[in-house]
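Reopening: Carboxypeptidase regulatory-like domain-containing protein still failing for me.
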Amino acid sequence: MCQISFGQTSTGKLLHGKIRVDSAYISGINILNLVNEKTAATNSDGEFFILAKANY
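Support: Ran it again with your exact input. Result attached.
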């Protein structure tokens, strides 16, 4: 399960998400934005933040 929310910055939106597998939070999972090639990793609570822009 992945939960996502957005916050805004001048260069895009800060995406906040949480990854859970079998009701457990997973740390160290890498997230890749294929459009801008930005990466992030989940913390010990399964949360991550990554910069994203709308792809029209």
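The mean pLDDT is 81. If you still see a failure, please send the error message rather than a screenshot.
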